[in-house]
Amino acid sequence: MIITRRVQTIAGPILTRGGATTLVRGLRRVPIIPLLIIVGVVFMAVFADVLAAHSPTLPSLTHRLKPPFWEEGGSLSYPLGTDPLGRDILTRIMFGARVSLTVAALTLLLGGVGGAIIGLFSGYMGGKIDALIMRVADAALAFPIILLAILLVATIGAGLTNVIYAIAMVLWARYARVIRGEVLALKEADFVARARVAGCSHVRIMAVHLFPNVVNTLIVLITLEVGSIIIIEASLSFLGAGVPPPNPAWGSMVSDGRDYIVDAWWVSLIPGLAIMLVVLGFNLFGDWLRDRLDPKRRQL
Amino acid sequence: MQRYIIIRLFQSLITFLVLSVVIFVISRATGADPVELMLPEDAPEEARVSMRAYLGLDKPVYVQYGRYISRFLQGDLGESIRLRQPIVGIVKERAANSVKLGLSAIAITILLGVPLGVVAAVKRDTIVDTGAKVVAVLGQSMPAFWLGIVLIQVFAARLNWLPAGGLGGPEHYILPAFTLGAFLVTGIMRLIRSSMLETLDSEYVKLARVKGLPEWKVVWKHALRNALIPVVTFAGTYLGLLLAGAIVVETVFAWPGLGDLVYRGIAWRDYPIIQSLVLLIALVVTVSNFVVDILYAYINPRIRYGT
Predict the structure, then answer these.
(1) Highest mean pLDDT (candidates A7-21, A121-135, A144-158, B80-94)
(2) Is B259 exposed, middle or buried (0-12, 13-18, 19+ CB in 10 A)?
(3) What pLDDT digit, counting tens, does each position of A21-34 carry?
């Protein structure tokens, strides 16, 4: 009886699986392309000074709006063309990668790790403190990140640090919520009670006993969020509320080309393509990491 | 249900209080003293004192906050530095344009996102599903402003089929509404897909099939109806995304709405515009989240008995 039933269940799902999915699954085992994109962009950002053949900020009016090398009139000394001020777009993309990656790394460190600590504390403490922290988190979650950032940057002034603070101020809430949820379930476990009986302090329980249990979730959340932070930073600099010119940022580079889309499409479209590629890399890598480290969050 | 509404109302009030305090604090954090900005350098001390009193700056901070919020709730949003007009008037002029664009974007999201999600779930693990997934992954990696510029480049500049921006007839809505909608379609699609997979596997769907109902009716009526419930929970999140997206998309298409006003506020360094718009949006977000929660509790009784 049992045996026949098992045969049926095996025959069911496996036969309906298509060949295409098996291939996709196989490729997903090691995400080579996303990893290459991530390593590539980090390399470009770190060694921008060495790699770049031109200055990212110095205008050169004789080389205005040169097309990329594969178009007529383009040359390999400006492989991706130049912008309306004659600056090399590839150089500016490399330096712009610095801005994007710095913002992503620091906001996630500040907002992500900070939020996780708040969530750990909130969930472990419970009671009124927890209720209060969660109401504040709800308020932050309800608010579009980009708007708070605009307010902060418009009032206090544009600049890298203000962009980072602004994003982190909203970002922490998501981490606090998720980590708190996990801690609520974990703190009922026997090992926490035993640690308490053995004389551990609350701080020690949180740091040594609870934190290692939520660290996978935290890593997955952070990786999945890099892409959206890059888009937020790009949107801010597109709107003129990011890193001030002439410093290159991907969003402001797209914005610089808006008036030239008929005659010089590359000024806008190439930096946008760079954003998309890098965000795609991080998103795919995050998906893979989630399946690996935190399978219960996997989307169906 | 009444109890639930009261609790949620109270929570929403706290949320708005927190948001408005944060916005108030940030707004006051400008390095410059407003009195110094408004009076000439050689103004006598008495003038400074009376100006300070006039602006309410001599009062304790919480009184200042009270004045700020009560003015806001009475519809006094202050005056634009650049346009020298009351901000309420500017907002009234532009709000309708934003609402029209937002509704068109929502229509596009529903018309594209729901069918795509359903088809992806029904044809699970086929080429259709994989294709939908690829589109979703690409869509989520694309900044909205860039998509807008690409669309303008292709459909307005190259092909000359559609206008590149500005207000006008129905053809003016197509590109901006699609750009703003594309922002949301991928999310809705994935959500519908996973929730359809769950409902398609449920007992009542099996029963509907056993009863001999045609498959399209089982999928589009019985299963989809229940699969839509989780979408309601995310309505608040999507509204936030829509508002954030509107700023960028209205800027790209020179659409004279509130998002474009935020952009102008940044460009003009017109702090009062940005500050009052941000507070206004905080109010809109809080109110709509409240409405969404009540709606959700109405659809799903487990919620209202839970609290």
Answers:
(1) A121-135
(2) buried
(3) 555 555 556 788 88
CA dist B226 and A210 (Å) reads 37
Kindly state the tokens that stand for A41.
């962009």
CATH fold group of domain B89-269: MetI-like fold (1.10.3720)
| ipTM for this model | 0.82
Which residues numbered 10-29 in B keep a CB inside 8 Å of some CB on A?
Answer: 11, 14-16, 18-19, 22-23, 26-27, 29
- Give the whole-angstrom CA distance, residue B43 versus residue B109: 57
Å between B56 CA and nearest CA of chain A: 20
- Looking at the domain assignment, is residue A103 inside a domain? yes
Residue of chain A minimizing CA distance to B12: A139
pTM over 0.80: yes
Helix (H, G, I), strand (E, B) or coil at B79: strand
Q: Which residues contact B49 (CB under 8 A, 6 or more apart)?
A: B58
> What pLDDT digit, counting tens, does each position of A126-161 carry?
889 998 898 888 888 877 888 888 888 877 777 888
| Alpha carbon separation from B287 to A169, B8, B25, B239, B240 (Å, rounded) | 22, 11, 22, 11, 12
CATH number at residue A179: 1.10.3720.10
Number of compact structural domains in chain A: 1
What residue spans in chain B does CATH classification 1.10.3720.10 cover? 89-269
Answer yes or no: do B19 and A268 touch at CB < 8 A.
no
User: Is A19 contained in some domain?
Assistant: no
